[in-house]
Design a protein that fits this description.
With about 200 residues, this protein is mainly β. The protein has one domain (about 40-200). Helices cover about 10% and strands about 45% of the residues. It has 2 helices and 21 strands. The strands form 3 sheets. Strands 1, 3, 4, 6, 7, 10, 12, 14, 15, 17, 18, 20 and 21 form a 13-stranded parallel β-sheet that branches.
Length: about 200
């Protein structure tokens, strides 16, 4: 009996001598940041985009944004880009490809573009979810152009979409757009598929 008690006492003293266990390490992050998924550059003022990449507005911007590079995505992020005088809201200089502009409003009394090409041409251009107000909505020329979910309101001219040549036919698409309160025409397009669009309240054709 004494031997058993002594053994229990030794076992208990060894167990208590171990002390508290070390706390576990902090959990490691398991999700990627937005910059790791898609590195984006904020825009808060008028500027000329000269590098490929993804850009987004951080607030309303007064002035012009010029796109002078290929492989550019410009997310208006629900904000409004406003031009004054005869300024152009979104413009390009030169011939570029793979450009997307989406999700916001472009407003101004002057000639402007909500889809990205007044002074230049695009290849593989996409304009989506844009609301445009002003005098001249857009004059777009190029290849493989898609204009989808765009609202054009209060313009003398709505959407003009021209091809480089006859062989480009069938590569352009204008779909799910609303053009209203225009002066001369709603859609003026060549070699293009137009579907599911509404044109109304015009004084021209």
């Amino acid at each position: 009996m004494k031997t058993t008690l002594a053994l229990l006492a030794v076992t208990a003293s060894v167990a208590f001598a171990q002390g508290p266990l070390a706390p576990p390490a902090a959990p490691a992050p398991t999700m990627k940041t937005l910059d790791q998924i898609e590195a984006r550059t904020p825009i808060s003022a008028p500027q000329n985009i000269t590098q490929s990449g993804s850009y987004y507005l951080t607030g309303n911007v007064n002035g012009q944004i010029t796109i002078s590079a290929s492989d550019v995505t410009l997310n208006l992020n629900g904000f409004t880009l406003t031009s004054s005088g005869d300024g152009i809201g979104i413009n390009n200089q030169g011939t570029f490809s793979n450009v997307t502009i989406r999700n916001g409003s472009v407003v101004g009394p002057g000639s402007m573009t909500f889809t990205g090409a007044v002074a230049g041409t695009w290849s593989g251009f996409s304009g989506r979810g844009i609301i445009a107000y002003g005098r001249t909505a857009g004059n777009v020329s190029g290849q493989n152009i898609r204009i989808e979910g765009v609202t054009v309101r209060g313009f003398d001219q709505g959407i003009t979409l021209a091809s480089f040549e006859e062989s480009d036919g069938g590569r352009h698409l204008i779909s799910n757009c609303l053009i209203r309160e225009f002066g001369f025409y709603g859609i003026n397009a060549s070699q293009c598929c137009v579907r599911d669009c509404v044109i109304r309240s015009g004084t021209g054709t």
